[in-house]
Specification:
about 270 residues; 4-stranded antiparallel β-sheet; 2 domains; alpha/beta
Length: about 270
């Protein structure tokens, strides 16, 4: 089974948040969505869980009881304990008694939250709150799991734990789509979707995205064309989409960040100015 959206368009007044976006999320895979602020990442995820209605296109999603969603917020109630948060959400989905207790124990162990089970969510670290929110989103074993930047702002250890939890969910047959600000996470996903101003810049596996990238990338001190350059650490990159680099230029192999920036510049150059 494949979930996702086809030719999805969402408008907020005069702003087009999604523009003819098609994304497939097969079961057992992790789809990572990346892009800058205003790219349309959260709009896409909210459209999948029914919080945003499409102006055009279609969404292929399971029934609500088979959806799991972790919003950009922590996804838990601060005044409840870890155990009470999981119990409450599990009850909403019809889990009770021994089945709920067994599922709660399993999730607490997998998220490394057993020792904090009776602690208020307000007393947890940011990373622990996100792991609790994730556990609540999958308590009912959803067919489609939607995660809005689950690891943003958490400590490195919790970030590793979260990625492990995401991978385990996919391994059990759940279709997972997540937005992320971390490109190393996007590289590990089964499928990568890069959004820019509501449109898909490129999508595919990381290897496919790299293989499909054309043009040359150089490392420069002073760019010949500033509008096609950007800073990377102490250096600058310059993209040559349809021209040869100057003789003697230092050619570099672009990473995913370079590719995304270069494609964004290329798209902006192709958009007519009003």
């Amino acid at each position: 089974m494949i979930f996702g959206v086809t030719s999805a368009t969402v408008r907020f007044g005069d702003t087009v948040a999604l523009d003819d976006v098609t994304v497939e999320i097969p079961v057992g895979t992790v789809v990572a969505v990346v892009g800058g602020d205003g790219a349309g990442k959260s709009t896409l995820l909210r459209a999948l869980v029914g919080e945003v209605l499409l102006d055009a296109g279609t969404a292929q999603v399971p029934p609500k009881p088979s959806l799991g969603y972790l919003p950009a917020s922590s996804g838990c109630w601060a005044a409840l304990t870890v155990r009470q948060n999981i119990d409450f959400v599990g009850g909403i989905y019809g889990l009770k008694g021994k089945a709920l207790a067994a599922r709660q124990t399993e999730l607490l162990e997998r998220a490394k939250l057993t020792s904090a089970a009776d602690r208020l969510a307000s007393q947890l670290s940011g990373g622990m709150r996100r792991k609790l929110g994730f556990s609540m989103a999958i308590v009912h074993k959803p067919a489609l799991l939607v995660l809005d930047e689950p690891s943003t702002g958490v400590d490195p250890v919790s970030r590793i734990d979260l990625w492990r939890l995401v991978s385990e969910a996919a391994a059990t047959g759940t279709a997972v789509i997540m937005s992320t600000t971390y490109l190393d996470e996007a590289e590990r996903a089964t499928h990568l979707v890069v959004l820019d101003a509501g449109r898909v810049l490129v999508q595919g596996s990381y290897d496919e995205v790299r293989a499909g990238f054309t043009g040359a990338m150089t490392r420069v001190d002073w760019p010949a064309r500033p509008e096609w350059s950007w800073r990377r650490g102490r250096d600058r990159r310059e993209y040559w989409a349809d021209a040869d680099p100057p003789p003697g230029a230092t050619i570099v192999q672009p990473d995913l960040e370079d590719i995304i920036i270069a494609l964004s510049l290329l798209r902006r150059a192709a958009v007519p100015r009003s």
